[in-house]
Amino acid sequence: MKTSRLITISFLLMAITTSCGVLGEGTDVVYDADAQPVMANVPYYISFMTYEYKMWICRVNMGSNDPKSCPQQPVMITNSPIDLPTQVMFLLPASAPNNTVHESTELNIKFINPGRCGESGFWRIVQNSTTLDGEVVLNGYKSSKDSKFFIHKANEYYKFTAGDNDNVDPITISLSNEPVGRQKLLAKRFAGEMEVYFYRNMPKE
């Protein structure tokens, strides 16, 4: 009788754990730097790790110091002018049950303001046919496969991946090897990770 009760209790605990999202991928909520759930269609700044590093995602021309120069793409800039970091929004599929962003959920990343260069603002991965590595650019589309990303927990921060979410060796978004100050966002397998945090408001010094 005791054995039967123990088995019943075990099954109940497994059912409760699974329904609460502790087991399984894609159920954990993504949180911003203020410990609030990250929401779709809400503007966020993206920093490398915490804001103390003073590295922010900006929408600029990689090869120019002129903020009006074209074409533009997402670039991680260190010690950027205060008005240069550019907010993004996360867009979820129409099938999403609500606007809360969860880990491993397919999403789009889009700069919130129209660009001066005519790009769509959607992040997109362009693959190099020779090296099979990619680079994050703009001109993506909401429905395009190369504009789909995922957010995963990476230690105490988060990281972006792309491609098939169930891939054993996913495409990871990392930083290029340019001298610190201005770095491209690369899309590579077996590479490092760009660990990031999300801020609704730019922290005050």
UniProtKB/TrEMBL annotation:
Q: How far does the signal peptide extend, from start to end residue? A: 1-24
For molecular function, the Gene Ontology terms on record are: endopeptidase inhibitor activity
Asked whether the keyword Endoplasmic reticulum is assigned, the reply is no
Q: Which UniProt keywords apply?
A: Signal
Q: Which InterPro entries match?
A: Kunitz_inhibitor_STI-like_sf, Prot_inh_Kunz-lg
State whether keyword Transit peptide applies: no
Q: Which PROSITE patterns match?
A: PROKAR_LIPOPROTEIN
Record's protein name? Kunitz trypsin inhibitor 6-like
Q: Which organism is it from?
A: Raphanus sativus (Radish)
Q: Which gene encodes it?
A: LOC108825226
